[in-house]
Structures are given as structure tokens and as C-alpha cells.
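Hello Y.,

Per our agreement to keep a running log of every chain we model this quarter, I'm adding this entry. I've kept the format consistent with earlier entries: sequence first, then predicted structure.
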Amino acid sequence: MSTRKQIIIVFLLLKLTKALMLVEGTMKRQSFKKHGLKALAVGFLSTTLMTSCSQVQAHDVNTLPQMTNKISSFTPQIQREDSFAQSEPGIQIFVRKVQLNSNLKNGRVPILLIHGGGPGGVTSFDINVPGYSVATDLASAGHTVYLMNVRGWEQSTRPVVLSQPQEKNSPSVTSEQAVRDIGAVVNWIRERESGRKVALIGWATGGHWAGMYTSRNNDKVSHIVMLNSLYGVNAPWELGKTFENPNQPGKFNSQAGGYRLVTPEGLLGKWNQTIPVKDKSQWRPEEVAIAYQQEALKSDPTSYTRQPSSLKIPNAYQLESYNLARGQKYWNATDITAPTLVIRGERDFWSRPADLEALKNELVNSSKVKTVTIPDGTHYLFLDRPEKGRSRFLQEVLSFFS
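Predicted structure for the entry above:
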């Protein structure tokens, strides 16, 4: 074995040891110590080996697609399978299945990851950076993991609105449409999982969508996790002024059109603002930020036709979030009976403490309720460094599911 290979192996072992010490230091539950620590070790090692000898670099539009295609070949412990489920006639919803190659029927619930109003499911939960794919971490713990894209996001069917000028249409892809897409995917998963119930993890608007779906379909949901999500509570919201019509206080700015355009800088804007240190790499690895931007732009086939490059994101979620923050309810927490975990990062700019408190008070019919505030956690805490909220998030989720 060459000296270079020996150095790489030693480096990986040291890196793994450090990660295990960080995770173990935050673990409080015995069940997670027994199962979750080993699972995270497998996930960390498998993803570290994936790119341990390569450096994240900027890619142009012609080289980016190969990045995703190579994920499975670089992680032999993890198997990925991409498919589509039909939501409505003409609406195909992208679904990715992620599991251990040696996955056995171990009784652990299948999980569906639901993105929010930013980039889609792959960018959010299966980013190609060592140790930062939530899908890999949960699969390494023995769960069969699925992630999806609501219509208009990433590989799912793109509504006609997205091919027209922004101002020609009202905000597109409503919660009702998103819930129909989630329902189609849950049914699709259950057909492949012997009719078992599915655990939902929704981030931000995805948590709102997951709650809305569960309130109508408790019989299909084993658990629900809402991360940094708004609920229908009339409380101060820092983004309210951003979405408001400057000439009509108290009304949403309808001139926003059918979608929004987000540049690479825009993808990191609020994230950077909420990280309380000048050197953002101390809080979030630089390669995560780069890959997040690249994957998001790649997900929109029109991104590189504009200058600066930008991706189109349906924006009905902005209108509805504006309404949620002013107290309008699209669903009632009292209608949920499934076990529910509500998590909020202390530094989150989207959800508010009032949302956490309201859900805690109104989830009176849920068979199990837990609310957690992660100290210093940002809106993107599962993409931040382990000690900045990522490890705690995984700990809470895996413990709740066990």
C-alpha cells in the first residue's frame, strides 16, 4: 500500500472518530445510543469514502448532471432508485428511494422526506457531500427512505406557468395541489411497502404540507415530523414585510407573479444572515454551500438561460405562508392523531416560537407529542455542521421513530 493511501486511511479514521465523539457527546437517549450511533457511523463512513480523495470544485452546466448519476457507484453501501408516481393526469412526481444494499425487513418505518419552498428534495435531503445527506443517514439507520418533489420542483412535472412570464399568472402550486402530490406518493410507497404506514418529515413549508396531509389521512401516517414550519398563528413574522404589498399594508403583494427567480447568492442569503460568525465555514462547510447552489441550479433546465443564472420556484407557498403568519389556518392540529414531533431551530427565520407553542397546545388528539428547540439551530440546521444542530436533529428523529 502506498504512503499516500495510508495517509488517506488514517485521515478518514481520525475524521470518523471525531464525528463519533461529537455525536456521542450530544446523545441523551439510550435507545439512540444503541442504534443511532452505529447507524450514523455507517452513514458517515460511507459518504466520507464517496469523495475522500476528491475536492469539491465548481462545475459548469455540461458537467453537473454527471454528479448525481455517480452517487450510487461511489457509495456501495447505499442503493438509490429514481422513479415517478402519477399524481393527476399529466402530473408526474419524482420519487427517489434510498436504502442500504443489505436492507432487511427490520420493522423500521419507511420515511418520506418533503422539501419546502426553496430547492427540491434532492438538493435539500440528498446532497452529494460527505456526511451531509439526510437520506443516507436515515437509510444507514435501517429505514427505507423516500424523497419526493412536489410539482414544479426539480424533476417533477413543471406547470405551464413556469414557462410563461412571471407577471402573467397568479402564484402557482397551492397547498391543495402539494397535498395531492404527497398523497399520490404515499400511496405509491405503501404499494411497495406491503401497505405499511409511512413516516413524514417535512421541512418549513414541507412541514405545513405534511401536517395538512396528515390531518386528513392519519390512517396512512405512522409519524410526522415538522421542522421549522409555520402554523396558523397571528404573531410577528420578520418576512411579512418582504411579502407584503408596499402600497397596501396587510395584503400580500400579488405582483409577485406565478413564480420567483432565485440566484446562487439568493440561495445562501438568509442562511448567511442567520449564521452569527463572520467566517461561515465555521458553521457550514464551504463545500456544502457550493454543492447546494450547484444542485439547485441544475434542477431547473432553464437556470443557465438567464444572466445571472437563476432557478424558478413556484411561489403560492409565499402567499399561503403570509396568510399562515397572520393566523389563517389551512388545517387544524386537533385533527392529527399520529405521533408528532415538532422541531425548531433557535435561529430559524421562518417559523416562530409561537408556532411551536400553538402546535404543542393543539395536538391534543395526537397519540404522542414532542416539541424540541435546538439551540443555535438555523433554518438549514441539517446542512450545518454536526455540532451546530445536525446531530441533534438526527438524534431526535431516530429516537422518536424508534
